[in-house]
Amino acid sequence: MPPTPSTFLNGVPELLVLRLLRDREMYGYELVQAIREASADQLTFAEGVIYPLLHTLERDGALSTRRQTINGRSRVYYAVTPTGRERFDALSAHWRALTGAIATVLEAPRHA
Known about the structure:
Elements: H1 5-8, H2 12-23, E1 26-27, H3 28-38, H4 47-59, E2 63-70, E3 73-80, H5 82-107
Helix pairs in contact: 2-5, 3-4
């Protein structure tokens, strides 16, 4: 039985949000859709996962926000700050090392 996304993908939403916001600012629902599209529908995170993460990253200084009204609807757009770029760099280095180590174990010859 495969692990549930909540346990297996712990930390992945933060990494993906910071990566996508490096390119351009987005609002929450737009991020949910961008993650789904960028991962060819392999990764889907509900708004209930993304919005609390956005608020935490903003509180920690990793994201800045601006409010804009479009078609009478107010949206909060998020952008990565220099602190967020540093956080992304650290997280992505850790992720690459971790996935490399996992790949090494998966590809290792079996021991008798």
